[in-house]
Amino acid sequence: MSRSYNQYCPIACALDLVGERWSLLVVRELLERGELRYSDLLARLDGCGTNILAARLKHLEAGGVLRRRQLPPPAASTVYELTEYGEGLRLVMHQLAHWGARVMGPPRNEDLEPGWLVGALQTAFPPAVTASRVEFRIGEEVASLVDGEAQAGAIENPDLVVTGDAAGFYHLVVDRDLDAVSVRGTRTNLRSLLAVLPPPAPPAVVPVDLVAQSHKVVA
After folding, report:
1. Measured between alpha carbons, how far is 171 from 173 in angstroms, rounded to an integer?
2. For residue 219, what pLDDT is reported?
């Protein structure tokens, strides 16, 4: 059973809802992927026990963060999706991701799964961030921003094409280092895109073992 901080404080009340272990990662998955079945969430959240996931989903549903919905036949599956209130966490997660990126440091190849780039774009850039059509070619991954929305794959007639490796993408987004990638198009447009991101956080001073723990597979 979850415990309350019993404080008349918006931060404490928010943590009462989403502060338990795995809760925000459930929100992350639903933000990135939309509606998901219980089995989908369990597969995505490696290390989360089935009883823990069931408890977190029940708590988040009771708090109005997500809801269950029955898909029509022939699927007839029960899926979980964020409510409008739960969708309000998108910008919170965006800010938290930029703050936490300093702890992770640049990724290693083994940290990333196929398809990671589209999720990284969703996490890095707030919705409707730009009207430009931007294509990212990072290592073997290709994903794009179209009308501010991230999508997998290449696009026709991009305004910008950003090419580099995963470490370069990290330094572009976290450090705003345009020299970490190659740019085809007007670099001013890329600067404008980066300008809407949160101000770069100062380098984090954290124990080495915590940095090592942060190098887990990112989907």
Report:
1. 6
2. 45
Q: CA nearest 56: which of 21, 85, 96, 14?
A: 21
Start and end residues for every CATH 1.10.10.10 domain found in the chain: 10-87
Can you tell me whether residue 184 is helix, strand or coil?
strand
Per-residue buried b or exposed e for 146-166, using 16+ beta carbons within 10 Å of the residue's own CB: eebebeeeebeebbbbbbbbb
pLDDT at 209: 60
Q: What is the pLDDT of residue 198?
A: 86
What average pLDDT values come out for the chain (219 residues) when binned by 10 residues? Answer: 85 95 96 94 96 97 96 88 96 91 85 92 83 92 92 95 96 94 92 87 62 54
- CA 218 – CA 215 distance, rounded (Å): 8
CATH number of this structure's domain 10-87: 1.10.10.10
Q: Please list the residues that pair with 141 across neighbouring strands.
A: 138
Quick one: pLDDT at residue 215? 58
| Contact by Cβ (8 Å): 161, 185 | yes
What letters, b where the CB count within 10 A reaches 16 and e where it falls short, cover 98-134?
beebbebbbbeeebbeeebbbbbbbbbbbeebbebbb
Domain 90-195 has CATH 3.30.1050.10: yes
Picking from 28, 18, 93, the residue whose alpha carbon sits closest to that of residue 62 is 18
